[in-house]
Design a protein that fits this description.
This protein has 8 helices and 10 strands. By secondary structure, it is an alpha/beta fold. The structure holds fructose -6-phosphate (F6R).
């Protein structure tokens, strides 16, 4: 695994964007991005926007699939992940919004929707680059500790820890949805390349467990140890507990 440790979150965004942009520029035909929400990827999206505006990075052939969405929030709710993606990235680059997919938090038949989401990813040839954040408990997407390492897109109950962590975005903790649709760890694993970002001391234990602990469902991100092309880009605070060598 490649582990790149950088000074701060701005540098984290730049390094991750450079990896993705290089890969995008190399591929002919549609480029399939797997995208995450939350605070962590914001500097990455800002850098991708900068690369688009000042260096012509082209999103016109991109197709994107987001990792997850809260159940019960429609795309125009300001805390929905569809809303986040529109405002943080899609509105600022030349991606065709018709080619951007976020799980449907209002799906009536969730099971059928999840199967269809997997099929849509497979139909476009799979994800080229998957962007990931990590929860303080080691989750990726909303695959909470204990999630099957082979899981596909499905509905999950959020843990108390994740609900508390995400309460900062809602007026009241009671407003945080308790269910989400998320790509599974198996879905993430199928991506050709993956980059996991983390910044801040609050992620140090999760980073340590996922890189230097056992591959185990109690730390879902640890599954990336088995991925053929996974890179971590983390800041010094998130890397503080690592003992093995890494790149800078
Ligand atoms: C969201 C997602 C989550 C977040 C994680 C960290 O799409 O996939 O796994 O990456 O909860 O969230 P932040 O970045 O807000 O600390």
């Amino acid at each position: 695994m490649r582990v790149i440790v950088v000074k701060d979150k701005m540098e984290m965004g730049k390094r991750a964007a450079a990896l993705i942009a290089e890969d995008m520029r190399k591929k002919r035909g549609p480029y399939v991005l797997g995208l995450a929400t939350g605070s962590t990827p914001i500097p990455l999206y800002q850098e991708l926007i900068r690369l688009h505006k000042s260096e012509g990075l082209d999103f016109s052939t991109c197709i994107s699939f987001n990792l997850d969405e809260y159940v019960g929030l429609s795309g125009d709710h300001d805390q929905s992940y569809r809303y986040f993606m529109n405002t943080q990235l899609f509105d600022h680059v030349n991606i065709n919004k018709k080619n951007t997919f976020v799980p449907d938090g209002m799906a009536k038949d969730v099971e059928a929707f999840c199967e269809q989401y997997e099929a849509m990813i497979d139909d476009v040839g799979g994800i080229d680059y998957q962007v990931l954040g990590i929860g303080a408990n080691g989750h990726i997407g909303f695959n909470e500790p204990g999630s099957s390492l082979g899981s596909l897109t499905r509905i999950k109950t959020l843990t108390e820890r994740t609900i508390s962590d995400n309460a900062r975005f809602f007026a009241r903790k009671e407003d945080v949805p308790t269910l989400a649709i998320t790509m599974g760890i198996g879905t993430i694993f199928k991506a050709r390349k993956a980059v996991l970002l983390a910044n801040g001391a609050g992620k140090a234990d999760a980073i340590k467990a996922s890189l230097e602990g056992p591959v185990a469902s109690f730390c879902p991100a640890s599954a990336l140890q088995l991925h053929r092309w996974a890179t971590y880009v983390v800041d010094e605070a998130a890397a503080a507990k690592l003992t093995l060598n890494h790149e800078t």
